[in-house]
Design brief:
Blueprint: H1 7-17, H2 22-28, H3 33-40, H4 48-57, H5 62-67, E1 83-88, H6 90-94, E2 110-114, E3 123-126, E4 141-145, E5 155-159, E6 166-176, E7 179-185, E8 194-195, E9 202-211
Parallel strand pairs: 1-3
Antiparallel strand pairs: 1-2, 3-4, 4-9, 5-6, 5-9, 6-7, 7-8
Helix pairs in contact: 2-3
Keywords: DNA-binding, Transcription, Transcription regulation
Domain HTH cro/C1-type: 11-65
Protein name: Helix-turn-helix domain-containing protein
C-alpha cells in the first residue's frame, strides 16, 4: 500500500501522524505552508537540502519520501553520527566542484548513509564500465570527497575534457617542464592511461570509501 502512494500522500500522512500543520512543518524547514501544500498536492516535489530537512522533520528517510519503501530502516531517523551522501551521475560529477553541495542536484536523488567524516561537497558514484576491474566492478559504489587531496595510489574522480567524469588511480610523475605531472591509470590493461601533460585534467575528488555489492548468479 505504501508504495502505491504518491510523494505528496506520503508527506501528508507523515505530517498528520506527527500532528503537524502545513504551516508548522514549513516553518521548521524554512518554507511557507503553501510550499508544503504544493508538495502534498504533487504540484512540486522536494529536492536537495529541502528534501533532507523534510525527512528530518518527518522522522523518515529521503528514500521513504521519494519511493515509499516500507522497510523499518526507511522510516527511522538516521543515527546522530551519520549523514546522507547524494549519489550523482557521471555527467553531474564532471561538473562538480568543492563548492557544490546537495542543493546542486536537481530532481529525484538517491542517497547513501555513512558515518564517515566528510566535507559538505562529498558525493557517491556508482561505477560503470570495466576499466577498473578486477577491484571495482560495475554497480559498485564509491564515496568521493573533493576536499581530500590525493596521494600516490589513491583512486580519484577527474574530468579530462569530456562530458563525463572518469574514475581512475592517481599516480604523480614528478615535475616536467616546470609543471607537476600526474597520470590516471585504469586497473584493466585494456584501457588507456591519461597524463596531465598530454590532456587537461581536473581532479574532482578522492575516493574515501568503496562499497562492493555481491551479484546474484
Amino acid at each position: 500500500m505504501i508504495k502505491s502512494e504518491s510523494i505528496g500522500q506520503r508527506i501528508r500522512r507523515r505530517r498528520k501522524d506527527l500532528r503537524l500543520t502545513q504551516a508548522s512543518l514549513g516553518s521548521r524547514i524554512g518554507l511557507s505552508g503553501s510550499a508544503i501544500s504544493q508538495w502534498e498536492d504533487n504540484k512540486t516535489s522536494p529536492n536537495g537540502d529541502s528534501l533532507i530537512s523534510l525527512s528530518r522533520e518527518l522522522q523518515c528517510s529521503p528514500e521513504f519520501i521519494l519511493y515509499g519503501e516500507d522497510s523499518v530502516s526507511n522510516v527511522e531517523l538516521a543515527a546522530v553520527d551519520s549523514r546522507l551522501v547524494p549519489i550523482i551521475s557521471y555527467v553531474q560529477a564532471g561538473a562538480w566542484t568543492a563548492e557544490c553541495t546537495i542543493r546542486s542536484v536537481d530532481g529525484g536523488i538517491d542517497f547513501l548513509q555513512t558515518n564517515l567524516e566528510l566535507s559538505a561537497s562529498a558525493f557517491a558514484l556508482v561505477i560503470k564500465g570495466k576499466s577498473m576491474l578486477p577491484d571495482f566492478s560495475e554497480g559498485d559504489t564509491v564515496i568521493i570527497d573533493p576536499d581530500v587531496i590525493p596521494i600516490p595510489g589513491d583512486f580519484v574522480v577527474a574530468k579530462n575534457g569530456q562530458e563525463e567524469a572518469i574514475f581512475k588511480k592517481y599516480r604523480p610523475r614528478g615535475v616536467i617542464n616546470g609543471k607537476d605531472v600526474f597520470e590516471l591509470t585504469p586497473l584493466n590493461d585494456d584501457y588507456p592511461t591519461v597524463r596531465s601533460d598530454e590532456t587537461p585534467i581536473r581532479i574532482i575528488g578522492t575516493m574515501i570509501e568503496h562499497r562492493r555489492y555481491r551479484r546474484k548468479r
